[in-house]
Amino acid sequence: MKKIINNPHDVVPEMVNGMVRSYPQIIEKIPGTEAVVRADKESMKGKVGIVSGGGSGHEPTHAGYVGKGMLSAAVCGQVFTSPTPDQIYAAIKAVDQGKGVFLVVKNYSGDVMNFDMAKDLAAMDNIEVKNIVVDDDIAVENSTFTQGRRGVAGTIFMHKILGAAAQEGASLDEIDALAKKVLPNIKTIAVALSAATNPEVGKPGFVLKEDEIEYGVGIHSEPGYRREKIKPSKELVEELVGKLNDEMHLDGNKKYACLVNGMGATPLMEQYIFANDVLNKLDEFKITPAFMKVGNYMTSIDMAGISLTLFEIQDDKWLDYLNYPVTTIGW
Prior knowledge:
The chain is an alpha/beta fold. The chain folds into two domains: 16-184, 3-Layer(aba) Sandwich (Rossmann fold), CATH 3.40.50.10440; 185-322, Dihydroxyacetone kinase, domain 2 (Hypothetical Protein Tm841, Chain: A,domain 3). It is 31% helix and 22% strand. It is built from eight helices and twelve strands. Helix 7 (268-284) links the parallel strand 10 and strand 11 (291-295). Helix 4 (155-167) runs antiparallel to helix 5 (172-182), helix 4 (155-167) packs across helix 8 (316-322) and helix 6 (233-248) packs across helix 7 (268-284). It is globular. Keywords: Kinase, Transferase.
């Protein structure tokens, strides 16, 4: 294992310190935690707080999306490990403005359990908290850390939509209703060329042959649904868009947002080649995305691979929210 780190057990606190010291105008650390909150407190006044978080190793998710117009706070667990309830609760308290707090949780058993416990702690303090559990990964039904489908890169669209709505003054009930409408329209699928190496483990989560890929891998190196020999980008797109079409019934009369997401070790050159092939494939459905992002938005440390998210935009206001200006490190 070759990594630019010090002690493998210190990667999360040292990373968080590096982030807040590099961008003090955007985020600050909540004392006694590995959670970060907006530095711009004025932007949170009178608004519903939006909090997310999870295991580290997915940067810029989640701390990179804290800032005006997006998340109010994010909680950084140990690598690929859910943050503890007390740290999540500290983030809830830090953003509570008397209007309630909304939690965006990815569907992993530890995250769901710990965010629920934090929600209970907040209730004892009379802080009203609601949440959504994001399960956008269509690859497999149950996985290593999950009952049901996993929460992956499509979660970022949820952060963006809800953050903009909250910034515009939506109530907790309105944000809750919006999240429930948005969720079933976000779908993601991935392909990996190599696994992530957790610095505390020191070896890859799985090993693929030199000429092998795996479809449907999760963001913690969870198994996918098929391994086969590496193929050209166009053929990878055929597979992934085909699976998304089976799920979403793509329609040229509808609007879509598209996210091509690098998993950590995939060069932007390859991401743009893949994006070009995705757009060519969508042309066959007479679809031109109304919104598109390409880059490293939800990674898996140093995994080589790519994920593709499509989001059916059923309301023009959702597109306004996607385009809403934000002040964050990662968007």
